[in-house]
Amino acid sequence: MGNVHELSYLKEKIEELKKEGIYRKLPILDGANQAEIMLDGEKVINLSSNNYLGFANHPRLKQAAIDAVERYGAGSGAVRTIVGNMSIHEQLEEVLAEFKREEAAFVYQSGFNCNIGTIQAIMEAGDLIISDELNHASIIDGVRLSRADRKIFKHSDIDELEQILKENRDKYRNILIITDGVFSMDGDIAKLPEIVELAEKYEAMTYVDDAHGSGVLGENGRGTVDHFDLHGRVDFTIGTLSKAIGVVGGYVAGSRTMYEWLNHKARPVLFSTSLPPAAVGAIIEAIKMLMESSEYTEKVWNNARHFKEGLGKLGFDTGESETPITPVIIGDEAKAMEFSRNLLKKGVFVSAIVFPTVPRGTGRVRCMITAEHTEDQLDRAVEIFQQVGEEMNILR
Ligand SMILES: *Cc1c(COP(=O)(O)O)cnc(C)c1O
User: Pick the catalytic residue: 184, 214, 242, 321?
Assistant: First the structure.
């Protein structure tokens, strides 16, 4: 027996990661997350952030954060249920409910927390959750924590979803269908109108994780539910405050009843300190900016269109994307990773995404287009894609 403190069982697993070629170092960003960044000491065009609207380093958000710190301090000092529920947290929930056109919104410290906390609180053993196979990891964890039974349907396969509903309707009192609003690896949109119709036909509830749709789709970024005009027909709509909104946090929008229940039962809110005032102040400012103007959402869509046209003309395969998330599908895993490394050498940072995050043989780089990119930056990126594509012989 060796020394227990050496953690030799972990050392062995780390060696396995190295053998599999998936051991990695984290890239280091020096400065704010924006369209061009200093990454590991090099200036590069950033096509990898979720900062869709360019809010992460926006002067209005920064000022709002400073103002909130001056008034409320650096930290909230407690969980919300004790004495960490400041008036600024209440304001945030009011503004979010108005923005999302729902009765209420309940805020968590992150989108991840929101999914694990909400699903666990609203479902229990003896209930059934039906989940799209490509749903986010935090949904998968939330479903496990809830102890409800679980059925998975093939990605956006409405026929299979109906089959599962038909077979199980009489076996359960509560059935919840969960889907992402926008799928983060392909940029496709959930078939929400069909899902909602089926849910109503079989008296199931619906839960949409709109982490990548909120701030992007719908009127002024109100999200996927607004995009399809399904207000009042989706029971739980999750959004994150860390992607398009540019700060940190998550929320679920829906009915007053939902709010009241989560207020008593959501474990991440009961047992973990509330968001710091700086974050909350900046988020409120971001939501106000979205409600005032469509400038930001228009810009992100125009930029995405421009970039996709450029890549499409060159013959790259951009998959099924319907949103600013633009995958460039290479296929082979190692080749996708090499493609990403070569792009970086020429000044474009776009991360490779491979199995098991996406199916084997669909390795890709995933380009995230934001409102902040200039046309010049996007054109330069396309040019570099062309150079590397030709060098590696991957243009169709
Ligand atoms: C990013 C993401 C989350 C987690 O949100 P955070 O605010 O980063 O914790 C949850 N669900 C989906 C679909 C996401 O893409």
Answer: 184
